[in-house]
Amino acid sequence: MRRGPLLLIPALLLAGISVSPQPVARVVTRPVQALVDYSPLPALQQEIRPVVTPPAPVPRVVLGAQTTHLLVALTFDLDMTPDMAAAARAGFKWINTDATSYLESMNVHATLFMTGMWAEVYPTEARRLARNPNLEIGNHSYSHPAFHSPCYQLATVGHTAQLGQVQRAQQAIERVTGLTPKFFRFPGGCYDRAALDTVHAAGLIPVQWNVNSIDAFNPYPRQIASTVLNGVKPGSIVVMHLMRGNAPSSAAALRLIIPALQRRGYEFVTVSELLAAGPAIQPTDPREIVEAAPIRSLPLPAPRWCGWVTGQKGRVYTCR
């Protein structure tokens, strides 16, 4: 077969394709959209800074706390004067172990204001109480002198020696218990403006009370209980004593006070826990003076009857 005609066929086919009309591609053009010149974000007018809440001012004197919660702080003084220390070394035991055992058995939170001399005379007992997580230890001076007179029958210490009383007690309590108190209670509750300045200069906060149990030298536990139960309100601080000789009925009174307050729904807290629940109630007297008359020589009369009475103020515990 001859190759010439075969080569001619593809050439003719290519020629036919080239002369046939081809579709024209249409290019669709769209109008170009103008770029919008957006203005930049406005600069912040001021820096965003974290809000720092200033610390609450240190209360001048604490009487209680402003709260609607059913909280009450039981506080107990552990006094020790040089005469009492001499009696203790001779064998007299001042601590009311019946009262402390009851507090611990009931898991009551409380604050104990301890004199430095008491910690030194009873180091084992002081350490044991300090180890109890329910109990808070406060400073009650070194040897329990009055920081202002008149103050019952307490010996008085001058302003120049008051700082030494506070610091020496602080050192004794720290050395014996390992704890550093942050609250201070004046012996007898007596003070003046200079005494307050001295305590604050030592870095402590004075704590008084708004319910006085009147358990000192009181042989009648029902009277003590009646006084406390009629005075307690939410945020109250109650003052009592753990001195077997000078407050003989405190333990018996506690066995009436604690169950009665629990039935009312009260929770027992330390002073620190109470102040965490609300701001401190402070005295309003601008003179900043508290004095106390001597103790009455005659004992209080024994009540003839104690019990619950319903009156205009509700149900109260009273003695008659």
Summary of the model, kept short:
With 320 residues, the protein is of the alpha/beta class.
Q: What is Rg?
A: 41 Å
What does the average pLDDT come to?
86
For the largest beta-sheet, the strand count, sense and barrel status come to:
6 strands, parallel
Number of individual domains: 1
Number of strands: 12
Q: What is the string of helix and strand elements?
A: HEEHHEHHEHEHEEHEHEHEEE
Q: What's the CATH superfamily, by name?
A: Glycoside hydrolase/deacetylase
Shape: globular
Percent of sequence in beta strands? 15-25%
Report what the structure shows:
The chain has 320 residues and is an alpha/beta fold. It has one domain: TIM Barrel, CATH 3.20.20. It is 34% helix and 15% strand. The chain has ten helices and twelve strands. Strands 2, 3, 4, 7, 8 and 9 form a six-stranded parallel β-sheet that branches. The protein has a two-stranded antiparallel ribbon with strand order 1-10. It has a two-stranded parallel ribbon with strand order 5-6. β7, α8 and β8 (236-241) form a beta-alpha-beta unit. α3 (97-105) runs parallel beside α9 and α6 (159-177) runs parallel beside α7 (193-201). The radius of gyration is 41 Å and the shape is globular. It starts with a helix and ends with a strand. Mean pLDDT is 86; it is low at 6-10 and 12-20.
